[in-house]
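[job 4471] stage=fold_predict status=RUNNING
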Amino acid sequence: MGLIPQNYLDDILARVDIVEVISGYIPLKKAGRNFKANCPFHHEKTPSFMVSPEKQIYRCFGCGESGNAFKFLMRYERLDFLEAVEILARKAGVQLPQSKPQDYKTVGLATRLFQVNEIASSFFFSKLRSSQGDTARAYLLKRGLKEETIEFFKIGYAPAAWDGLISYFRSKGISLSLLEKAGLILTKETGGYYDRFRNRIIFPVVDIKERVMGFGARVLDNTLPKYINSPETPIYTKGRNLFGLWAAKDAIRQADRVVIVEGYLDCIVPFQFGVHNIVASLGTALTVEQVRLLKRYTNNVVVVFDGDKAGELASLRSLEIFIEEGMDVGIVSLPSGFDPDSFVQRYGIEEFKKMILAPEGFFDYKLKNLVRNNSLDKPSGKARIVNEMLVTISKFKNAILKSEYVKRLAEQLDVKEDALFLELNKVKPDYHYRATNSNECQKLSCNPTELLLLRIILQQPKLINEVKSGLSISDLQDTDIGTVLEYIFKLSAEGRTIEPSSLLNHFSEERIARIICECSLSQGDELEDKERILKDCLRRIKAQGIRLRRRLLHEKIKAAQIAGDEELVRNLMQEFHELVKSDLSTSGVLS
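[job 4471] inference complete, writing structure tokens
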């Protein structure tokens, strides 16, 4: 965070209003001096997310997530700190200091890999528009893609040569080992390298920050493998990203629904014709990371199954991760032999829209498929259906939903509800995770007196000098609170204003941020008679510190006695008696 001077960060925060920033993403309602909303970082029905226009910070009293405007953008948009600063600087009209252009050799590996991928993407795109790409471009146009769509998604072409990309990068003086780390080239058994992608259409895989992470490559005919993809690299993990999300995220928020398909063209073709809230899973089972990424934009999901995959039990099981996350899942099953691309080309986009606007509920769809594949005339068939459906029902967190689905299952199979509930109680859901968030439902484990002391200082900065004269940082048991106080003392000595939103810029540790926000934005009224409470806090902290040192000394004395070191015992005993006297002088306030 030291790359941008603190005064620039303070200036940005002084010019932007956190309420305006956050309300651009979630609806806020006035609640006294503050604003409230359902927390965007964990599932809840009762609003516990509070935003303070006075303190210019936010805090969720449910999961503990807290911070200033920079932190909100980082968490909500998954940005790094510098990116969040740049966005708010533009909004505030603050000109950031210009840094020297970075050479790719002097920056971190991740940055260099993104730069290499960007160069490769431009190379592939230029080749598609050259004479070498005539056949590939004709193929895309024949598949129904428009020129503007090709340009929007930066679709390219990898020439047939074994070293086309290698030669291009060599001409730029870029190390081939870096291309290998990016997954763009492969090593020969005899030594040297060759291009991974050759004579294929190239689909850049872009993250939500619009950086090229990797590539997918399709053949121009029916040879196999039809697709090859970038391997996992330090910047690309397939299970953490979704194709097209960078282009779809705003439409997903607006529609409050996301459509999930499988392949590149299955996403691009509907997008071209107006279905902009669509992403592709790239042919892999959805992961917790992908689901949580989507949940930032909507709680409603429509999964489109290709005709040849509709009803596959393994595919349905993989979708139960949405249920675990409290999301609503609908299913669209296309006719046999069709995928979204071919369906739109044959029947038109309006028919596709009708289907995704009226999906079948996940529960009904799975039950229908199980009934079709198991005989209801045999008890064993019913048992198989029950076993599968109860695992699904167990993953719903809402008791009313569970009860309703058990009732519907009993009616469909003509079995008793009581029997199903007995079986349901035996089910141990195979959750993909046990906690929704490392912060959620965890309370700060802090010394309450030290936390109260910090709260008073943040509410009444003029009392800082009294704390400095009456307390040493070493008296504190909580090192994080001590770190915050030490920095506050420094700011005070420099004559600078103590603002919670500005303090947060100095600390990257999550626990320290939570401590600052908890002390600054507590539920309930502000403290009264702060000076009296402060003096009481100082005496208590002193007394607690002395008693802690007494216990430690007592343990050292016992160890010295066991070791037979009489001189050390005498010295420790003298130190112990001095502490006892100090404790007696402060203990009155604790009685």
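[job 4471] summary: Confidence is low (pLDDT under 50) at residues 431-442, 587-591.
[job 4471] exit 0
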